[in-house]
Structures are given as C-alpha cells and as structure tokens.
User: Fold this.
Amino acid sequence: MGVSAADFIRDLSDVIFPPSCVHCRALVEPSGAEERPAFRHVCQRCVSQLEFVRPPHCTTCGHPFYGVVEGGRMCVKCEGLDPAFREGRTAVLFKGAARSLVIELKYHRGLHVLEDMTEIFRRVPELIAHVRGATLVPVPLHPRKARERGYNQALLLAQALAAAAGEGARVEPLLRRVVDTQTQTAFDRRTRMANLKNAFALVRGADLNPSLHYVLVDDVFTTGSTLNSCARALRRAGAVNLDVVTFGHG
Ligand SMILES: [Zn+2]
Ligand SMILES: [Zn+2]
Assistant:
C-alpha cells in the first residue's frame, strides 16, 4: 500500500509532537502496530466512552430514549418548542470527549479536531443515511462574531458532515444572522426570545428549491430555539423538506 506525502508528513509530525487526547491529555496511541488510529485527538479510552446516539430517540432533538418509549416520540424538553423543522438528529451526547472536541474547535481555534468530528459523524450510520442528497445549511454567526472568531464552526461541521456522507450532500450557507443576539444580555428573556425570532434571514440572492431536502447544521442542540428560528427563516423562503442535525446534544 502506498503512503502519500501528506500521510508521511503527518506520521513524521506525530513522532515529533505525539498527539494528546483533547479530553484527558493522554497520549493517543495507534490501536495496532501498523494501523493508523481512527481518532488522532481522542485516546482509545475516551473514544470508548463516547455516547453515540442510536434509535429510538426524540424526533425533534435527537436525544436518545433509554428503555421503554411511551406514547409520543418527542421528549419532555422539546414539548413547547413547536418545531418549524420536521426531525432533528444528533451524533453524540455532549459530554466527555465530545464536549472537549466542540470546545477545542469553538474556543481554541482547534480546527485540527475536525477530522475526529468527521469520524464521529461517520460512526452514526442512521444520521449519515439521513443527510445523503441533502443541502446542508449551517447556522450562521453574526458578522461581528465571525470576525472575532475567524470562522463559523457550524459551517466547518457541515463540511465535516458532508465529507462523512460522501457524495450527495452539499453545503450551502443560505442564512445570515441579522441580530447580534449575544450583545443582548441586558434584555429580559422574553425580549431576547422575541429578537431571536427574527434574528435570521436568507443571504442576498439565495434561492430555495421546494423540492430539495434541507438540513440545518449546528454544533450542539441545547434548547433548540436558535435552530428553530433558522428553520422559520428557511420555511418563509420556501423550504418544505427541512430537518436538523447537530454534532452533540447537551
Ligand atoms: Zn482521553
Ligand atoms: Zn427532544
């Protein structure tokens, strides 16, 4: 088997700077003598503790149901959300190494961890099957925030998800954030919620095709209110077939 120059340089740099686990800081060792580890920034022990989401789960936020599923398919936390999207799915629970990966990506400019996040998406076949052929729409950052951070982690995660899905999923940043919700902490909750309702709009010149499958992508599902505002904006613009995917659920 041939080794590409990029792989060779990567292996060489692993020898000089052995990768450490983003969660516990332990050295990330290859699983076999010749095998390259599937995860480069999470150790095997922390990988084994990742909680991948398998069905059955809440149809709105993707949180797994443990044991018996009674009655409705929506979890208690999602009641009252009145989702403008059809279904929501998540790859892992937002804890342990999954949480550390998001923090590394979002707050420490750790763009290198995206390869491990792609691998996590890849390990949730139900989620991958769901996004095949879809148009992935990242939750946008306000321009002020985008300038500050230098990148939008939701866009990078949408690209990671498209890479994990292989052919047939494409990323289109169709939304923009018109209200800077983070500078609004002075307002009370009700005002903030009202502002969030109209916080998103279509990017100029964007055109939605009602026959396409749109999937909103974000890093973490918490209350779902941001994703829901995005979903409303896409619906107003004509999206019919609309779902949500997040990397983690917290
Ligand atoms: Zn670890
Ligand atoms: Zn739920």
Q: What stands out?
A: The two ends are 41 Å apart (CA to CA). The pocket of zinc ion (ligand 1) is lined by residues 21, 23-24, 26, 42-43, 45-46 (CB under 6 Å). The chain has nine helices and seven strands. The longest helix spans residues 153-165.
